Amino acid sequence: MVHLFHHIRTRGLKVFVLSSRAECLREATVGNLINVGYHGWTELILRSVYSCLLGISSPLLCYLSTCSAEKYKAVEREKMVKEGYRLWGIVGSQWSSLGGYTTARRIFKLPNPLYYEY
């Protein structure tokens, strides 16, 4: 996946990393991504309490969830499209990461032995 990530970047595409991890875990998340070889993404989008409410963001109480992972990621993808981005592909290891608002040309479901959602 790291090789694919960098190949996509060298082709001139912007890569957004969209995670259900809490905003208060940004530093650890960035460190983990860099340690395994991911760097140079366009934006790392992490979840805040108000992430599903009209795009309002707040780092307060970041462990609380206001909506499902599917709805949260759909809202974030919709915001990207409204900002003028065209989604070429969505990659995820859980079906909940891939559903909802999906205007991407392709969707790629990766196996993940930690979650039995094949």
From TrEMBL:
Short name of one Pfam family: Acid_phosphat_B
PANTHER family in the cross-refs: ACID PHOSPHATASE, ACID PHOSPHATASE-LIKE PROTEIN
Protein name as annotated: Acid phosphatase
